Amino acid sequence: MGYLRIGDDDLYEEVAGSGDPLLLLHGGFCSLEHLRAQGEALVADGYRVHAYERPGHGRTADVEGRYSYDVALASLIGYLDAHGLERMDVVGFSDGAILGLLLAREQPDRVRSLVAMSANLDYSGFSFAVDAPDAPAGARVLTELRAADAADAADTAASAAPKPDLERMHYDRLSPDGPAHGDAVMAKLVELWTEQPRIDTASLAAITARTLILSADRDSVRVDHSLLIAASIPDAQLAIVPGSSHDLVADRPALVETLIREFLAGS
């Protein structure tokens, strides 16, 4: 545990275990706490798990200006170089999954295998983005079906106690910028998610790593979009986690853990 200077940023990192290196990449407005159980399971499997928190997340201070996947990728590569990691397995969630895809595309020799959970290639991949210019016609149908499901569950949800926002709780507890800065981070993330990424499906053919695309049947990323990602990567596998939302790691932890561990064991 500690901080590693990458460029102008001091990134909080944790390295645990021994054996083959594995990089764990957290999601947007998440910290390492979100994937801690998954990381501990992988350490138990004999991996040396590397994980760090991007600026504005967890214990890493925020930076001035907008967020960018290109900047985050450059920082990721700098982190790998600092540790001398030439080839490793990568497990990423949401924004971390997008970075995993970009790393595997840009430096294919560096990624042995990739698990990308709930990634999207562009804004149209979200289930709520049915009016995006390149959103397929089926997106509106899927969105309407989900809206009907939500309406059926409205009475139950209204009477139930609201789920605590664990990631906000982690942010408030961990951030060196203080709890009040969380709204500024979220505003920058919403701007990022609206405008980026813009990944050409044809470019994913450059990925040579064994790849598992994971998403949920109630994900904010459409199921057909996850299928598109998997179909665009040579020999990629696809798994849809049932009864789960975008936060599939928290919704179905045992199933997600099994899928990841069994996939990596086949490397």
UniProtKB/TrEMBL annotation:
GO terms for molecular function: catalytic activity. It holds the Pfam family Abhydrolase_6. Residues 22-256 form the AB hydrolase-1 domain. This is Pimeloyl-ACP methyl ester carboxylesterase. It comes from Schumannella luteola.
